[in-house]
Design a protein that fits this description.
The structure is a homodimer.
Chain A lengths: L9 E13 L2 E8 L9 E2 L2 E3 L6 H12 L6 E8 L9 E10 L18 E7 L2 E4 L5 E3 L8 H15 L16 E2 H12 L5 H13 L4 E8 L7 E6 L6
Parallel strand pairs in A: 1-6
Antiparallel strand pairs in A: 1-2, 1-4, 2-3, 2-7, 5-6, 7-8, 8-9, 10-12, 11-12
Chain A binds a DNA duplex through helix 4.
DNA sequence: CCAAAAGTGTTGGTCGTACACCCATGC
DNA sequence: GCATGGGTGTACGACCAACACTTTTGG
């Protein structure tokens, strides 16, 4: 992409934490770097910001090149400004959190879209697990730049915000129907702990149904085994 | 300061929301701009980031020029990247929240330290009130750049964080003793609402005393009229 | 000068809500 | 086996009341 950076100039980049929940686990999109610096390391997808762009438009441009999703949830995470964070020169990076529903991505996951060699890594404790022919467990040492720090920062933010914002709904099919169990799965994947279904149900219904933002669409659609779940839909879901 | 900006270059600046609690009210430090653009408007103190500085060191440099405080609490707030935010050229601004204890600043408030014409503005609802010979009430229209937006963003963040972090203690004299009423005053100033003293006391004592982070130093020091208050001290106060 | 009033700090109670943990029932 | 609902106990905030200790006021 950008082969050389002028050393006397300051650049601004955006880096993306693209997250989804897949098979009950939180996944993060990583790309393998094919050139210096950090060749062979894993990195968050990123891109330099052009002088006539805002960070948001840069993020949108990058997303459009990578993923077949329209308008995913995104929020600015943090800006990283350590002087030595990029050996090529002075690069300030604005990190963004992006959440995409897994349902929209099936099949597209391991394709190297437009030259990006991207793979989903499963978050496991402090590390990241890659499966398939790239199978490996990645620690901070395998990640380029300060991206391990970005990931930690993003996870903290996500785990913190999930229980006082609508951010969890961004993992579900937009505008689609969902059961409370599916929503619970998202919470459990993000928080990395099992929740009490009974309390979870009360929590959600108290929080949303009384304000009219959550409406039940149909009774009992059967998916898989067990008692069919009631389906709900959220109105005005923006993730807040 | 910086007379001209090259139009083909991207610059990064830091802007500061310096907050304190004074006489039971939340106050913000503003400077009056004496040159174009936005001459005569009010603005947050700010400074361009040099190529060999991190944002944090830029903030520290600016603070050192303005205020006689050592190591105040600070946290990165948000990065503003709209392309048209500065008519001089392309400037991305990283805003920081800075909290200083009023006790350390008495007398220094209205001095134009090192050429900065700075004044404390009291936050009142959506606006800012200046007193003294600069007396005025400032709305968004009197603020330069996108600083009104920055202030709204900072207030939201502060009000949100005050009840799940230690940020309130940053308004008190560091390492000093304080009464629970003084702490309650900080909460009330930040949240802009009266709290129930009984519940507030229980909230604080439960939260801190049981973990051993809050210790009572002396019984009953008399300050003003009314029953003398017990004094406390927080160990490891960092604001988290 | 002394007693009452007013102001501030401190402690306690009740009530309703919300969650943790556990158990029961429906499909 | 999974979805749903109900109970009990605990923690906390809203709201209220009382008491402790001080300064101020007024006779």
């Amino acid at each position: 992409m950008h082969s050389e950076l002028a050393r006397d100039r300051l650049c601004v980049a955006v880096d993306l934490l693209i997250l989804t929940v897949k098979d009950g686990q939180l996944n993060l999109l990583l790309s393998r770097r094919g050139h210096s610096p950090f060749s062979g390391y894993w990195a968050l997808p990123g891109r330099m910001m052009a002088i006539d762009e805002s960070a948001e438009s840069t993020v949108n441009k990058l997303l459009a090149e990578m993923l077949p999703v329209r308008d995913p949830y995104m929020e600015q995470l943090y800006t990283f400004t350590q002087t030595e964070r990029d050996p090529r020169g002075r690069v300030v990076s604005v990190a963004y959190l992006v959440i995409v529903p897994w349902g929209r991505l099936k099949g597209v996951l391991e394709t190297a879209a437009n030259g990006f060699q991207c793979f989903w890594a499963t978050l496991e404790g402090d590390g990241l697990r890659l499966t398939g022919d790239q199978a490996a467990i990645l620690g901070s040492a395998e990640l380029a730049f300060d991206h391990a720090w970005m990931i930690r920062t993003g996870l903290k933010r996500l785990r913190n915000k999930i229980d006082y914002t609508d951010i969890a709904f961004a993992f579900l099919e937009d505008r689609g129907e969902f059961s409370l169990s599916e929503l619970e799965t998202v919470f459990e994947a993000v928080l990395d702990e099992k929740l009490d279904s009974s309390n979870f149900r009360r929590f959600i219904l108290n929080r949303y149904e009384k304000t009219g933002r959550l409406e039940q669409t149909q009774q009992a659609e059967k998916r898989g085994r067990g008692r069919p779940a009631a389906l709900y839909r959220l109105k005005d879901s923006t993730g807040r």
